[in-house]
Amino acid sequence: MLLPTTCILLICFLSTSLSFLANATLNRTLPHQHPDPEAVVQEVQRRVNASLSQRQMLSLQAKDQISPCLTGNPIDDCWRCDADWQNNRQRLADCAIGFGHNALGGKGGQFYVVTDSSDSDPANPVPGTLRHAVIQEEPLWIVFAADMGIKLKHELIVNSYKTIDGRGVIVHIVGNGCITLQYVSNVIIHNVHIHHCKPSGNANIRSSPTHAGWRGRSDGDGISIFSARQIWIDHCSLSYCTDGLIDAIMGSTGITISNSYFSHHDEVMLLGHNDRYALDSGMQVTIAFNHFGEALVQRMPRCRRGYIHVVNNDFTQWEMYAIGGSANPTINSQGNRYTAPGDPNAKEVTKRVETDESEWTDWNWRTEGDIMVNGAFFVPSGAGASVQYAKASSVEPKAAGLIDQLTMNAGVLGGRRESSETASTSYPGFSNGSTTYSDNTGSGDGTSDYFGMIFGSAAAPPLTLSSTTSVLSSLLIFILTLHMTTTNLHLLLLLPLIL
């Protein structure tokens, strides 16, 4: 009788040990999380200062006859000052800043020219279409042969090492599902309009040349970033989507969102799946040189956990709040301009979502060099509430007085923004007459069928030690119960130790 008892105790010990290791794993950093986010912040400021200093120096030398390409915006100045940029398109991949600065996109790969705006069969995309381009395995730099409006039948699943480059043409991506970046890395999305995205799914959709699988219902995000890394979204115009304009969840990190224009939307940007999802503690996002424009309500962004650097953006409208958060995210706001609405009850930039002050008083939310307009105010906390917070930047952020200069080209270059005057504009195969706000079925609020969307795709879910532990524990309990009921019934008393 000693041997079965010993085996049972050993199983209990192993089960407990695996559970401990699972919890420890969940608290570890993400593989691609930067070990020193403050260093990334300082490098962003250094790049901005260097570009502005170069503009000032050349302006003095040329007596104000300065090239229009030199705006002081380090991203734009990196490639727009090249008169031959159309023949050097892949230089763009060297111009990112912030946490997503290592996003390669399709750098080094061949150019793929989209010539067909159709999307008739998402399971078998036609060569020459955007869908056929983004599912390929090899690095590709995707460009467009002409202006086009692409109405998606279902979500567009983008593979790793892709650049969607809309420079030189006007490209509108609308329709069902819109853009999904799931379990991928090194994606650049540049200079495209993304709007009027709606939920879709319950269909076969191809995600690679060798795999088409069943997808559950998507949320209707403009861009959905799900367990992805090294992502850069630049010079896009986003509006009128059912869920978020950009949502990043489930352990995504290494993201830069820059030079984009956001308008006509309720819940603009969600960063983090839910308050309990520990892996989002490793999320690191840079939000720089964007214009948060007309008819926006909230979530610019709304953060859960992670480190979020909000730098040199222009917030010209919100109805509830600009920046919100829960579950102790670090929010570093530098050199932004916040213009509050007329509503006297909506002057505060910040909102701690469903959290008592006793809990958020230690959260590190800080403001430095921001300009508050029309009564706007930012409530700092934690180290950010101190005049000198830990590891304060040695490079001062540029004053928000330069915000007009830094954000003057936010949105699609050369294209109209989705303003009220274009709300009824028709694009090929699509009429965007609807101007309704979000239906509040957010991907990170537990109300959407994100498990159906992911596991229905036949893609392998992310393997974690905790999920492995659950499977092993269940198997061991089954075997143990079967053994005891046949040979050692009295040992059932030990079963609660395992459970």
Automatic annotation (TrEMBL):
This is Pectate lyase. Residues 417-441 are annotated as: Disordered. Its EC number is 4.2.2.2. It catalyses: Eliminative cleavage of (1->4)-alpha-D-galacturonan to give oligosaccharides with 4-deoxy-alpha-D-galact-4-enuronosyl groups at their non-reducing ends. Pathway: Glycan metabolism; pectin degradation; 2-dehydro-3-deoxy-D-gluconate from pectin: step 2/5. Binds 1 Ca(2+) ion. Required for its activity. It is an enzyme of class 4 (lyase). Its cofactor is Ca(2+). Keywords: Calcium, Cell wall, Lyase, Metal-binding, Secreted, Signal. Residues 421-441 have a biased composition (Polar residues). One of its GO terms (molecular function) is metal ion binding. Residues 1-24 form the signal peptide.
